[in-house]
């Protein structure tokens, strides 16, 4: 794996002792989150004078080691203002550690669903464009196509200025630009995952676009992707917004906590593009570049949208991780 990292130009190799010192020997006081694959610690690197988040993979976690290898192959080679940057790495004596820039404003989902504070529209819109810019880079502008496979609001980190930084590349895969998809095991998070992926396991740029669409709707509506009905089934947010769209009332889907303090054209475009990205037929979804052009007011809205979500109505699925057991939400806020 050292050769993989050295293909990149930025990350440096740390000694284990340096990272132990930065975290007070990985003390519980420095622990930010813990999960099946490992723990995340807050640290301070004195020589670089920066605060960092350090992911320490559990020695007994095969999936954690697999995701570590994926991040080694992918994120260490990527450079974009809207991606979480890896500072360095360490693998010695059976220890696997990744060092990331620390995101002081945690993750997007924390702010969207906070009960004591409202994320105002101008900030939300900047975040929308930032996530789109990151995905455009991954899908089209880098030398290889990167499929993220787990785009969700808890994987969108926020820096001190609330700029979006897409993180957690543990499930990411590289594919050639002339190949449209990559068949693999089921991975991602239900609610954000393209329904077709739950059947075929085939990840593609279109499935990433679907997840992006769900995130757009969550940002504009301030609601989580799925909600329970009285009979126990779950209805997807895209279906709820689609009903209002069909009635010509789409702006009523906007987060009520914004109290109308938003640009109606921007909100409409975020909602409509969200629906466009989540349409059931992946062949009718926009490319990320088409979506970004509409969001930036550089292209018109589609005249008519195809059906969204699942053709059979409410989605009978739990809103939980499949194929990816992340750390607790606090840890997800970091990487």
From TrEMBL:
ATP binds at residue 55. This is Protein kinase domain-containing protein. Residues 305-335 are annotated as: Disordered. PROSITE patterns: PROTEIN_KINASE_ATP (PS00107), PROTEIN_KINASE_DOM (PS50011), PROTEIN_KINASE_ST (PS00108). It is a single-pass type I membrane protein. GO terms for molecular function: ATP binding; protein serine/threonine kinase activity. Its main location: membrane. One of its GO terms (cellular component) is plasma membrane. Gene3D superfamilies: Phosphorylase Kinase, domain 1, Transferase(Phosphotransferase) domain 1. In the C-terminal section; belongs to the protein kinase superfamily. Ser/Thr protein kinase family. One of its GO terms (biological process) is defense response to oomycetes. Residues 305-317 have a biased composition (Pro residues). Keywords: ATP-binding, Cell membrane, Glycoprotein, Kinase, Membrane, Nucleotide-binding, Receptor, Serine/threonine-protein kinase, Signal, Transferase, Transmembrane, Transmembrane helix. Residues 323-335 have a biased composition (Polar residues). Residues 26-335 form the Protein kinase domain.
């Amino acid at each position: 794996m050292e050769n993989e990292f050295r293909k990149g130009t930025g990350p440096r190799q740390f000694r284990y002792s340096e990272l132990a010192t930065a975290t007070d020997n990985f003390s519980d006081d420095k622990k930010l989150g813990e999960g099946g694959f490992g723990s995340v610690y807050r640290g301070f690197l004195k020589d670089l004078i920066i605060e960092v988040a350090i992911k320490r993979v559990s020695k007994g976690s095969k999936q954690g080691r697999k995701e570590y290898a994926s991040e080694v192959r992918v994120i260490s080679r990527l450079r974009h203002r809207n991606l979480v940057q890896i500072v360095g790495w360490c693998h010695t004596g059976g220890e696997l550690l990744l060092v990331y820039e620390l995101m002081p404003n945690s993750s997007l989902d924390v702010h969207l669903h906070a009960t004591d504070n409202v994320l105002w529209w101008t900030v939300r819109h900047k975040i929308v464009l930032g996530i789109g810019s990151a995905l455009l880079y991954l899908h089209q502008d880098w030398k290889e196509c990167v499929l993220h496979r787990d785009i969700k609001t808890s994987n969108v980190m926020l820096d001190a200025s609330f700029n979006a930084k897409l993180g957690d590349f543990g499930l990411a895969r590289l594919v050639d630009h002339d190949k449209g998809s990559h068949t693999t095991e089921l991975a991602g998070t239900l609610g954000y995952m393209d329904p077709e992926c739950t059947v075929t396991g085939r990840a593609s740029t279109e499935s990433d676009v679907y997840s992006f669409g769900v995130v757009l709707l969550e940002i504009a509506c301030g609601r989580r992707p799925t909600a329970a009905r009285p009979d126990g089934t779950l209805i997807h947010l895209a279906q709820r917004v689609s009903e209002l769209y069909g009635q010509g009332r789409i702006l009523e889907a906007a987060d009520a906590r914004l109290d109308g303090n938003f640009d109606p054209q921007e909100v409409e475009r975020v909602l409509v593009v969200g629906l466009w990205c989540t349409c059931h037929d992946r062949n009718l979804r926009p490319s990320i570049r088409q979506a970004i052009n509409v969001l930036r007011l550089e292209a018109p809205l589609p005249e008519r949208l195809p059906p969204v979500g699942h053709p059979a109505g409410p989605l009978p699925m739990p809103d939980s991780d499949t194929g990816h057991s992340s750390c607790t939400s606090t840890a997800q806020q970091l990487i």
